[in-house]
Amino acid sequence: MDLAARPWLASYAPGVPTTFEVPAGTLTDMLDTSVRTYGDAKALEFFGAATSYRELGGAVARAAAGLKSLGVRAGDRVALVLPNCPQHIIAFYAVLRLGAIVVEHNPLYTDRELRHQFEDHGARIAIVWDRVVPRVQRMPADIAVTTVVSVGLIGAMPASRRLALKLPIGRAREARAALTTTQKLAGPRRLVAWKDVLRHRPLPGKHPRPVATDTAVLQYTSGTTGVPKGAILTHRNLLANAAQGRAWVPGLQAGRETVYAVLPMFHAYGLTLCLTFAMSIGAKLVLFPRFDVGMVLDAAKKSPPTFLPAVPPIYDRLAAGAAERGADLRSIRFAISGAMSLPQSTVETWEEATGGYLIEGYGLTETSPVVAGNPIGPTRRPGTVGVPFPGSDVRIVDPENPDVDRAFGEAGELLVRGPQVFQGYWHNPEQTQAVLLEDGWCRTGDIVRMDEDHFITIVDRIKELIITGGFNVAPSEVERVLLRHPDVADVAVVGLPGAAGEDVVAVVVPAPGVEDLDVEALRSHCRGELAAYKVPRSIVQVQDLPRSQLGKILRREARAQLLEDGRPAEGRGDRR
């Protein structure tokens, strides 16, 4: 144990190793090992339909052959636009088996948001939830996609569930409409059914395999600038972070854990904790296409969860729902919260309901994503994000000069170095150079403070991103949309404390001649171009915005003024 170089090791929970080596091989090798080791054990469960590890391995081999027949080659980008479902897992590993690169997308994104990412990565093949296929089909002809693989969720469900969805009653029709579409899927791009991709013979074992340094995933993030960029994550990056997660949780029982995938797997947090970590320990992964309290509690009766990665609002709602229904959550031994601050009240309520631990962690897409976590044990420290993960190094530096370290107790920017740190931004060397420094250090853009025991507390964010419901919202993106409305002269978008971490609030200067802003019209305008979580919850009308001497809008001052005056009511348009 090198306490001189990594003094935080003294705060690790008993059983957590103080030395760390990245496992050899790739994510493909990792899955193959789990298939061999846990063959007949359940790998996936979806509305009660189970898939064993052996069946999963076979499906990945067939899907890889099917994608190869569509022209996917090593190094190609393949877009995944899918909710949590078995097909998502199969497609993810099938793409990697060919040495190609997975590009994850939020299926709730608008046409404009999807188009920006597709323009950037240039994927020719897209594997898409059938409800989203029309959105991809109507992309302009200059988008590189030539083939769309349509995925229906209902086909992955058990026969009894599929039959129930066909019943001629309103509730069944509503449930079916939420899972699939009746829209015409045809369009200018070739359309292939997922079931046809799976009809191929398994890819031969001798087919060339990826290597650890190959790019595995492009994960889009707003990073430190507010402009979405593709973070390049290699097999080694993702394999390392999954192994770091395994090391962090003493008491894990390989082949016997049940992990609930309530986090979306197109998000870096859900991707690592579910797509890689869970598969690496031979866990049964119970998949939910969206979070619903009743759905989760119903599943818990038949497949009690033991490990639940989530965000604070999910823990609050599950604990309340369980208390109301008299449901038992005491099977959950481990719960790891991320993406937003974890209130102490949530910890107390959750641990009383489960008898297990709920700890907070910290990470960012550029670090695959986990950097630090509270120890799972009595040394944890609520209110902090814990200490660095095994194999990770951190520094607290002057944000204006990252060569200058800050003393204990002083706030500064957090730098991270470790095997989980990304390789840069896709086709964006300028931003890569701004974030990746010499000797492997990565600038996080987060202002933190480290105490004498080396626990990290988040103080502020340089990047001014808004975190709502665990998702990042770039203020500049929302501002650009609002500025396209004729009633808006200027705008600052900020985050204010809310039930889901932060609420998106727009402070708007109306255009000349506009007396009172039509708040609902502005929100409707936003809904046409932004995912629902990015649409401002509140819109505040002002005569002017705080600005620097050069005329730059000062978002932090606008936010401080709102907090001083009293935050606006939900969905409201105030005049200030």
Give your account of this protein's structure:
This protein is of the alpha/beta class and 576 residues long. Among the domains are: 60-210, Rossmann fold (3-Layer(aba) Sandwich), CATH 3.40.50.980; 466-575, GMP Synthetase, Chain A, domain 3. 31% of the residues lie in helices and 24% in strands. The chain contains 17 helices and 27 strands. The strands form six sheets. It has a seven-stranded mixed β-sheet, sandwiched between helices. A five-stranded mixed β-sheet has the order 12-13-14-15-16, sandwiched between helices. Strand 17 and strand 18 form a beta hairpin. Helix 11 (293-302) packs across helix 12. It is globular, with a radius of gyration of 24 Å. The mean pLDDT is 92. GO terms for molecular function: long-chain fatty acid-CoA ligase activity. It is an enzyme of class 6 (ligase). Keywords: Ligase.
The largest sheet has its strands arranged as 7-6-5-3-4-8-9
Report helical residue fraction: 25-40%
Second CATH tier, the architecture of the domain at 60-210: 3-Layer(aba) Sandwich
Q: The CATH topology of the domain at 60-210, please?
A: Rossmann fold
- Between the first and last Cα atoms, what is the distance in angstroms? 57 Å
Structural class by secondary-structure content: alpha/beta
Name the CATH class of the domain at 60-210: Alpha Beta
Count, helices:
17
What is the molecular shape?
globular
| Largest sheet entry | 7 strands, mixed
Low-confidence stretches: none
The count of DSSP E runs of length 2 or more, i.e. the number of strands, is 27
Strand content: 15-25%
Mean pLDDT, all residues: 92
Give the radius of gyration. Answer: 24 Å
Organism: Arthrobacter echini
Domain AMP-binding enzyme C-terminal: 477-552
Enzyme class: ligase
Domain AMP-dependent synthetase/ligase: 32-426
